[in-house]
Amino acid sequence: MRAISTVLGTKVLGTGLAASLLLALSAPAGAQTRIPEQAVDTATQLRETALASDLGYRITESLTTEVGPRLAGSEADARAVEWAKAKFEALGYDKVWLEPVTFPKWVRRSESGQVVGRHAQPLTLTALGGSPGGTVEAEVVRFADLAALQAAPAGSLAGKIAFIDYRMERARDGSGYGPGSRVRSGGPSAAIRAGAAGYLMRSAGTDSHRNPHTGITRFDDGLEPIPAAALSVPDADQLTRLLALGKPVTVRMALDCGWDGEATSHNVIGEITGSSRPQEVVLIGGHLDSWDLGTGAVDDGAGVGLTMAAGKLIGDLPTAPARTIRVVAFANEEQGLWGGKAYAEKYAEEVRRHQIAAESDFGAGRIYAISTGAPEYAQDAVKQIAEVLAPLGIEYAGDAGGPGPDISPFAAQGLAWARLAQDGSDYFDLHHTPDDTFDKIDPAALAQNVAAYAVFAYLAASAEGDFGSGVQADGATDGK
Amino acid sequence: MRAISTVLGTKVLGTGLAASLLLALSAPAGAQTRIPEQAVDTATQLRETALASDLGYRITESLTTEVGPRLAGSEADARAVEWAKAKFEALGYDKVWLEPVTFPKWVRRSESGQVVGRHAQPLTLTALGGSPGGTVEAEVVRFADLAALQAAPAGSLAGKIAFIDYRMERARDGSGYGPGSRVRSGGPSAAIRAGAAGYLMRSAGTDSHRNPHTGITRFDDGLEPIPAAALSVPDADQLTRLLALGKPVTVRMALDCGWDGEATSHNVIGEITGSSRPQEVVLIGGHLDSWDLGTGAVDDGAGVGLTMAAGKLIGDLPTAPARTIRVVAFANEEQGLWGGKAYAEKYAEEVRRHQIAAESDFGAGRIYAISTGAPEYAQDAVKQIAEVLAPLGIEYAGDAGGPGPDISPFAAQGLAWARLAQDGSDYFDLHHTPDDTFDKIDPAALAQNVAAYAVFAYLAASAEGDFGSGVQADGATDGK
């Protein structure tokens, strides 16, 4: 296959170098990946067609309206799988199929919280995904951040509720979510180690509404899980004000939720078959599951809708690009990248077939940059793509960032990734909350995303030469 | 008393004229109400003191934090009464007392809604105040507005759920709330007349969050009440999209709420005693009760906090104004102006003692205008007040608008009113929702409100001459 022989040409240079250093390598003359001029012309037309289309918006509307919330493993998740298969078929994809993904099933039945005593009042909270059920009524002890709770001596919170009041920062690139989500993932285990009976956190979010942010948590091995929940931002403010009065504050949190056996959902896949190198695949996609509080519009109905639309618009061209466009609606991203892991496992031997992959899972804001993990010999081709994207307000950004969540397991096995970086300034106003609903999506911004993904996928699928998938540290390739 | 003799001077002019026409009358020379120069100087200082103070903000914080939501007749409402009495006392008011107010008690226990069938998903809704409990599972019939539902033939909605999808308009002066709130007050009876088993409405609100707007409704005499609820704005959008798919949509709404006997709460009153005419009263205030979903910060913790602060700052002056400043935290405004009606009834014979009244019950936005229902002979004095308010961005606005809700029953009996018009552009984003919380208040805007109320109350209490309270159509006066 052409792509393999191209990369094999780099072998003489690569022995013993770390894969990341490949970025600094120059391939021999003639091994440079490049995009044919005619493909650039077609992509330019495709971009304008996509900008004028509301297809991505309508697909996203259909999913979020007709299915609504679709917690992994739920009845609605199964409906979402049916919906995705039917939608790929209705859009005229050449091949459509399901791949099973099995995972532990978590269910939320009810949840409530309140301050008890002289300042009695309800608190708006939501169980963290993975929390056990249970009712805890106890004094609250506040910590400014995760490190403060981790420093609490063992036993010092015996019978109490630990509360981390960390306020997440707003940022275009979502960089505030790293520390914010670590409070969610690491807080409960730290609380248990200090003896706490329950765990509360200020939501990892940037809004100011009575809509708490859920999201998966975990418990370190050997610890007995405790009920763990997030307060809405105004409720965290309120609890902090009550604590500032200087007297003990008792909260009752009652969660009815927990793990409940296993469930099987599906990665749903649609393909536009390549015209000359159909075995080579450019992968785009989003994740089909959502949290249960909203209808999963920005997380990640938009990602599914816009990549489905991009593939469909490529399929509408008179001639398909050389390579196959594969659109994947991944199963159960939210609770641990289950769909992405299943995909990486299933295709472990076929990383070389996958030329490059990009997942949209950061909302529906405009894309402002493209970056890839591709090696130096492919960067001119990425720059060619960036030139076609430039009228959309998108800049070339080298190797900034990393792969989307569902392609990250496969990227760890050598898959080349691209990142179409979205403006996520308001993403964490909505993410994992009841407020993640279709009305929050700007149709013009979504069309810009469709245009960007269509251009990217079409040009990557038209490139002569590869983007580095399956290139080992020693310059060898794996997969077939 | 000076004020009476001043008004008696107008008697020769007024025979047979409607009270509203008094605005067009000129009092005889010497009967003009005016404000002494020294009072203007003091008020100018007071304005600056108030602007630099966070007292109103802190009082509002105290109420909304320590008491939280305070539905009329609830345990928390009783705590709010205790809080208000203690706060007036702590602020050093000269007199503090309670006046009982009895009303029917409405309680909300639980509520839920969902679409059932092939698009099964939860809907966020809240029972309207006054709704009976009950569970209805029925097909939804959508109406664009109240008139459309009112035009539905009797029996045409037998067993169905009527849904009014009217979208309220945003406006600085809140003028969109008239038609919006009529959907809430008039919709249920129209639904019953058409045979409906349940009633849903798009919330009377201007936000886009999953926070429904409650508020009182009523049922016309002779009709059997049905469960009545408001969907959040995004949920109304969602239901409308589902209906647009063209197949019947069935919703299950389950409300556990209803009337439950009577309750007695209290108007809580604090006074700063006037220095030379203590029997004459200038009244300012807000309402102490709130809906139960939020903590009643903009509706109407702010009104209580800012008027309490204004009175306190007047009380801190070396010399009190001539007249008494009375600050009233009214009971149960939300369910039918019960506190305002009780006040008007109790003081029906004393309207002449009440020189003028202003209630703050439109959030915590900046005040942009002052208007009154005072007669022409008092308008120069109002303009004098407006001059002191002008540096706050406040304009003189004649007789625009009308009295605040709790003073309107007394105004109907002849009480002169003032309106300090607030910018309510975002008020109906929050009003009657879970999102009405303290974090929504801008402390600088609240200080501006305190300054305006302090200046207004101080100068009205310092005026020589009256503002028209108790002046009859024939120019006579009533009360003592």
From TrEMBL, chains A, B:
Coiled coil: none annotated. Residues 1-31 form the signal peptide. The keyword DNA damage does not apply. One of its GO terms (molecular function) is aminopeptidase activity. The keyword Metal-binding applies. It is found in: Endoplasmic reticulum; Golgi apparatus; Lysosome; Secreted. Keywords: Aminopeptidase, Carboxypeptidase, Endoplasmic reticulum, Glycoprotein, Golgi apparatus, Hydrolase, Lysosome, Metal-binding, Metalloprotease, Protease, Secreted, Signal, Zinc, Zymogen. PANTHER family: CARBOXYPEPTIDASE Q, PROTEASE FAMILY M28 PLASMA GLUTAMATE CARBOXYPEPTIDASE-RELATED. Homodimer. The monomeric form is inactive while the homodimer is active. This is Carboxypeptidase Q. It comes from Novilysobacter luteus.
